[in-house]
Amino acid sequence: AEVVNVFVSDTRQPFVWTTEDAMKLRQHRLVGTPVGSLPNFSNQNVVHGLPVLLLPEEVCLLVEKKLCKCFTGELDQFDTEAEAKKSREQRRRFIDAQSSVSFKKRKTQKPSIQHKQDDQQQQQQ
Fold first, then answer.
1. pLDDT at 44 (0 to 100)
2. Out of 31-35, 37-41, 63-67, least confident range
3. pTM here?
4. How many other C-beta atoms lie within 10 A of the C-beta of residue 100?
5. 87 near 76, Cβ under 8 Å?
């Protein structure tokens, strides 16, 4: 069985950050709770995405069955430099994807009130 990478936050909450790991969870009949925001959705109270927050019981089950690796986020905890590099790349892609969608959405939004006032002043001159 494939191992799931679980990242434990400073507040001791276990998260799964990649879609690959989230799908591996489902293979073990675990789903966790998606808690991340999705910039494409205007109602953030209904739809959530990555990361996935796991219950302590879910993590215990994964550990007991030797189906996960737990990390505190320090890159020196990886067994190989390749694993550390893969983790850095996944984090960068995740952040870039969120930023890209957010930037595109911001460009398509209506101008702010200040911009409208500036436009009105320019038209009056």
1. 67
2. 37-41
3. 0.62
4. 11
5. no
